[in-house]
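During the second year of the project, the team shifted from modelling isolated chains to modelling whole assemblies. The rationale, set out in the original proposal, was that interfaces cannot be judged from single-chain predictions alone. As a representative example for this report, we include one of the complexes processed in the last quarter. Its constituent sequences, exactly as entered into the pipeline, are reproduced here:
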Amino acid sequence: MSPAKKKQPVAAQAGLTMADLAKLAGVSKITVSRALGDSPLVTPETRERIQALARKHGYKLNVSARNLRLRRSHTVAVIVEMKPSSSRTMWDPYPLSLLGGITQELTSAGYSVLLTTRHDAANAAVQAADGLILLGQGVHQDAVKLYDRMGLPMVVWGAESDHDNHIVVGSDNRQSGVSVAERFLSIGRRHPVFIGNSDHPEMAQRLHGFVDELAGHGIKPLLLQRVDWTLESGVAAVHSLASRKVHFDAIFACSDLLAMGAIRALVELGLSVPNDVSVVGYDDTPHGVSFLPPLSTVRQNWQEGGVLLARKVLALIDGQPVASQMLPTSLIVRAT
Amino acid sequence: MSPAKKKQPVAAQAGLTMADLAKLAGVSKITVSRALGDSPLVTPETRERIQALARKHGYKLNVSARNLRLRRSHTVAVIVEMKPSSSRTMWDPYPLSLLGGITQELTSAGYSVLLTTRHDAANAAVQAADGLILLGQGVHQDAVKLYDRMGLPMVVWGAESDHDNHIVVGSDNRQSGVSVAERFLSIGRRHPVFIGNSDHPEMAQRLHGFVDELAGHGIKPLLLQRVDWTLESGVAAVHSLASRKVHFDAIFACSDLLAMGAIRALVELGLSVPNDVSVVGYDDTPHGVSFLPPLSTVRQNWQEGGVLLARKVLALIDGQPVASQMLPTSLIVRAT
DNA sequence: CGATATCAAGATATCGATATCATTACATTT
DNA sequence: AAATGTAATGATATCGATATCTTGATATCG
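Output from the structure prediction step:
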């Protein structure tokens, strides 16, 4: 048998500890700790001296030790709904935008962001977190309950629902539905269609706002149920309308892709956008701006949403009272 | 003065420790540790008994304590180039896809993913990591050097470069340039144009592959320098060609948006795609499939790229020899 | 001048898990 | 039967930082 050579992990960084620094500076560990922490309990001179020493030797704080002592991880786990091979969510730019805001806010508050997919949310990583942020359209009751049982401060992105009581941050989907309805009414549309998935909580609220506002004017929109949010789905939706000889003059689509698909189909049918039919999409994707004709759409403020999610978890961790909050959306009226 | 009520952070979870479990089970701490770690040093029965007890009481391992003792954080920091307000990267779907693969692989190896933006990469979080993964097209020498100085195992996504020696994982940009050139040659195109930013390392390699392959057939493509990767930029590029009365019959654009813009401009100019001009984009974005005409493009395998990035850091952390690696891309030929 | 207040710094205990070495109980060998 | 081996478990020290309680030195006061 050949002698199996054991691989030596590099991990154990020989880095200095506070004790080492203390010896170097001729003070005690605790003084080093205080100096590095800018505590007022040390003279400015010793503080400077020790900080300089730390810099010089490239001292690295051992975060684990600190967290252990403080009984906090200073870490928030972000659970993203990422199905390994699914096309949609992985590609969807929105979680990344939210992540941007979240990361910004958390790191500037001295917290770290632990990224996790829903599938492996049971792992040790999440156990270490001080708080939880849940992202992803598919987050349903069961998942939320699962995490809830971890007893951690938790904030969810999405639609507010009556029968559960966790903190939610999201776009004001209802209001966006109202806005689109108002817009359609103001330009004299009387036969609007809604394209989207009413089983999806966020979309359902858009639908509600849309329906309610129109109802106030005696109008009942047509609901065109569409599970996919692809361009093809939008095309198919309009074709189905045409084949059923439905009369309509406005479309509120729950995604820009749906909207663009719808417009393409309309053009194919010889209809003019926006003369014959008005179309409003959702999300303000980059493609929409340069679409022909430029797409009217509803814009969500994801950056701010992320920041808000972060603030709420932090507040929860801090034991402060926190309420759910819906962010206003803006209707971007372009050419459609 | 009213007595300032001090807010009480909830953080300090009263959770059980191994010592508590040990008392409950009538064994020593270390036996609990071994039982939970499936060590062969405890009888199957005691292991079962203790694990059941842990489950029953919802025992949560204190990761900080463990990491402290093991002198490892079991954490890899992912540094994403996210400029707070920039439009591009934040929206760009690709980092998320990479993140998907990374997260999958790392968590299944028992590691956590620490998400960081480049800006706050100096924070304590990163110091805690066992390894580093750098994402983002704008990662340049200075940044890499900065992180290099942390002395951590590091892997970078992007283009391989001669004059630095860190591990790189990326798409084989050069080969993709060659493939597109081959395609153009095979369909008899003799006057190709390259649209992109030659200062961008990854794009530069696409250009090199493209140029080299064409040179073998005595053809020298025209380079159209474009810093923006937007649709408008694509439109402008083609218009500039037209106004200069350049003759061309093929376009290799470095992003799908550029390609779509180019096609739009071509159509406006009364040229037919692909009859008069062939166009190939890059990235295989969802919009490309349903573009009219469906866009030919180069697809990168991001999921796998993420997995590979993760594997390489893990190997580095483990002290194994690791080499850079470029992933093959695939040319998706559709209608353009 | 003695007593107390104030300030800087140190000693010690502690957070929760695990590596290492020691111990016990029982089985096997000669 | 004594000696050796083996398997299961335990005792202790340790990872590196910080909270808490002291200590010593200097300043301030009546």
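Residues 17-19, 29-30, 32-34, 37, 61-70 of chain B lie near DNA strand C (CB under 10 Å from a C1'). Residues 1-13, 84-91 of chain B have pLDDT under 50 and may be disordered.
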